[in-house]
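ok so i was messing around last nite and threw this chain in just to see what happens. nothing serious, just curious
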Amino acid sequence: VQLQASGGGLVQAGGSLRLSCAASGLTFSNYDMAWFRQAPGKERVFVVGISRTGGSTFSIGSVKGRFTISRDNAKNTVTLQMNSLKPEDTAVYYCAAHRHTSGWSTSLRLRGDAERYDYWGQGTLVTVSS
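result:
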């Protein structure tokens, strides 16, 4: 199984970036997907997630209205569109796959628990300058 993340880079505050994660070696539609991020010196945290069908999305409060997650099950990809970026969004962003369980969509704790995810991408660095 491989999750290949791409699209990170350097952007000024207020700008936009689009991250992509291409999955291979798994039945993509069986997996709920998420993006986590890890800022320097901090732990990895959940940012956004999308259910295996794409019917439900979730995000943390600080990115609501700015970040949008989507997926294409025909292409085995998940995308994170990030708008109105802020310096505090600077982090390494990781895509992650969770083999679907009924609790993922109903449990904030489960969605946010990195230990519950089965596969991880290699991370892509997003740097937002002020």
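not much to say yet. The first strand starts at residue 2 and ends at 6.
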